[in-house]
Amino acid sequence: MGRLVRDVPIIGILPGVPRRSKEVVHDRVGDYLFTEKPYFFVGVVWLELLFLSPFSIVSIFGILCSKPWFNTTCLIYGISIATPITIVLGELMGSGKASEKLMMMYSPSMDLCVLAFLCGLIMCSSKTSLALSKRSTYFA
C-alpha cells in the first residue's frame, strides 16, 4: 500500500519521452523530490495533473477567444500555483539538499504565479474603476 500511495501511477502510462525527461531532470539538476517522493510532493503533482492542467487549457481558451472571465481565471491560477510552489520552495530551502540548479528550476514558477495574479488583479481593478466611473456619470 505504501508504494501505491507514494508512486504517481501516471508515470507508468507515459511513453518513453516523458520518462526519459524525468530521468534527465533528476540526473542533471539533482531533483531529490522525484526520487524520494515525499507525500506532499505527490499531492502537488496530483493537484497539478487533475486541476491545474485542465484549468490551463481553459485559460488558454480564454486568451484566444478574448473572454471576459479571463482576468478572474488569472487570479485563480496565480493563487493555485503559488500555494504548492511555496510549499516546494520552502522544502527546498529548509532541507539543505537543494542545489543552485534545482532552485533555479523551481523559481520561475513562482514568478509565473505572481505575474498571473498581478495580471488578473490589475485587469479586474481597472474594470471595476471603469464601471464605477460610468456609474457616477449616470447619477450626475
From TrEMBL:
Sequence ranges assigned to domain EXPERA in this UniProt record: 1-117
Keyword Transmembrane: yes
Record keywords, A-Z: Membrane, Transmembrane, Transmembrane helix
Pfam family, one: EBP
PROSITE patterns associated with the record: EXPERA
InterPro entries registered for this protein in UniProt: EXPERA, Sigma-2_receptor-like
Transmembrane segments: 39-63, 75-93, 105-125
Topology class, membrane: Multi-pass membrane protein
Annotated compartments: Membrane
Chief location: membrane
GO cellular component: endoplasmic reticulum; membrane
PANTHER family from the UniProt entry: SIGMA INTRACELLULAR RECEPTOR 2 (PTHR31204)
Protein name as annotated: EXPERA domain-containing protein
